[in-house]
Each structure stands twice: as structure tokens, then as C-alpha cells.
Amino acid sequence: MSAGDEVVVALDVGGTGMKCALVRPDGTTVHTERHATDAQRGPEAVVGTILDVAEGLAGKARADGRSPVACGIAVPGVVDEARGVAVWSANVGFRDVPLRELAGTRLGLPAALGHDVRAGGLAEARLGAGRDAGHVLFVAIGTGIAAAHVVDGSAATGAHGAAGEIGHILVRPGGPRCGCGRAGCLEAVSSASAIGRRYAELSGVPTTAAQVAGRAAGGEPLAVEVWQEAVEALADGLATGQALYDVSTVVLGGGLAQAGPRLFDPLRRALRERLTFHREPRLVAAGLGDEAGCLGAALLALDTLAKESR
Ligand SMILES: [Zn+2]
Q1: Separation of 233 CA from ligand 1 center, angstroms?
Q2: SS3 string of the chain?
């Protein structure tokens, strides 16, 4: 079989759903599937589904005349990528699950295990909006703020699997309480949830971040104030990120990035005001949408193959 027929099996496991694909070595997707995670069934059942789905994808590849050559899986929570273990996850319930070994044994293929946000950042840096940038900070802003620092196509894990987590930079000491327990983290001020919550607190009306963005654009004073607070805190966090990482490109993803120029224009200005000798990074919207994590899992699988052939 020619090399053109080779594919990797890729899964991005989330709290509610799994995005799955067969991906060619050049990063193009030849087949996608979605499955429910049903995390309430417990971690053992979820692991069973992951392995069944992965095996099914490999079978689908063979049935289509392709050759599955490796498997990559991205999961949320704390992931030990070196050992291939899903150490801990709040929403899926993993506790020290050796997923890489389990998948490798079930499929009879080399396997890789990665962290969902780092995998998404990897894909944006290599295939998406940060392509050819070299040094990329990927920031996904939704319910929380998750981030990954990618250098030359490799996502830094840190010593404990938490590198690049700029959502927990302290930007407003004594400010709103963060999910991590501390007051004033970036995530507690600038995540989409935090923006909606802050506006609702002040107005008494339940509101989403997208609605706040829209009302701010229409000039409503309260929305303008809340939006500006969030943008300024985000600029503070990104300025700290830039001092630490000196990236050429910041890729913003997640729901908040869909505010487009309503976010990017004031954020660029606020970031520029805060930088002194540091170079201003390019601020761009993520290009791969919710496929990023799955494509990242595929890249991890391909990287494993490249390492093995060395
Ligand atoms: Zn925090």
C-alpha cells in the first residue's frame, strides 16, 4: 500500500462528546465521527467507549482501503504525556488511567496521549491560524480561559502539566473568585462566563458574553463598562504572557473570539498600551474551530511515528 493511503486515528475526548477523525500525514481529514462521552457512566465505561471508537475508526480505515498507522487521543484534565497517563479529570472522572498503553494494545498500533488544550494549541500552531509563526500562545476563552504555549510545533507541558495556563495569572488582586479558589485570576474576569456573570450581577438580568459584546457595540453604558473591564484584564494577562513567552502570534479561540473586531480591536489597543520594550504579538482568531483538539491528537500520533522511525 502506498504512503498516500496511511492515516492516523484521532480522538478528542471532552466532558460531553468525543470528536474523532481519520487524518492523513499532511493534516487533511478523510473521515470524521462524533460520539457521546456520557461521563456519568463512570471512567471505566468512558475508557471502554474510547477504545471501541478507536478500534472502530481503525476498522473503518481498513474497510476503505487505508492503512491506520498510529492513534492519538486528547483528553482534558491533568495529563502525564511522557507516561501516557490520564492522571485526573474533573469532568470525565479519570484517575491514573494508562490510556496510551490501553489504546496501543487494543489497536496494535503506536499510540500517543495528549492534553486537549495543548493538542488544540499544537494544531493551531502547525495547521491553523498560527501556522509558520514559530512561537505561539494559544488562548481558548469560553467557560474558563485555557491556554498553551507552543514553540516550533511542540507544546510545552511544564514540569507538572500546567505550562502556559495564563487563565490563572493574577490580574485583579481581591477581585472575583476564580474556579481555582483564588480571587482575581484572569479567568474570573475575562472568560465568557465571567463577563456574562458580571453584567448579570450589575443589571439583575441573565446575560451572555455575546449579548454584552453586542450591547457594548450599541453603546449601552453598563455593557461598555463590563466589556472594557474584561478587555483590559485580558490585555494585562496577555502582556504578562508576552513578557514570559515573547511569542510572534497569539491565537484566540473559544466562544469569546467569535466577538471578532468587538474583541480584537480594543484588545490590540489595550495590549499595545501595556507593552514597553517587548514586541507586539500578532493577535489572530483561531482557524480550526472545535476540530483543533482532534487534529492535535492526530499530530501527536504522527509525532510518535516520526520519533519511532528515528
Ligand atoms: Zn484561578
Answers
A1: 13
A2: CCHHHEEEEEEEECCCEEEEEEECCCCCEEEEEEEECCHHHCHHHHHHHHHHHHHHHHHHHHHCCCEEEEEEEEECCEEECCCCEEEECCCCCCEEECHHHHHHHHHCCCEEEEEHHHHHHHHHHHCCCCCCCCEEEEEEECCCEEEEEEECCEECCCCCCCCCCHHHCECCCCCCECCCCCECEHHHHHCHHHHHHHHHHHHCCCCCHHHHHHHHHCCCHHHHHHHHHHHHHHHHHHHHHHHHHCCCEEEEECHHHHHCHHHHHHHHHHHHHHCCCCCCCEEEECCCHHHHHHHHHHHHHHHHHHHHHC
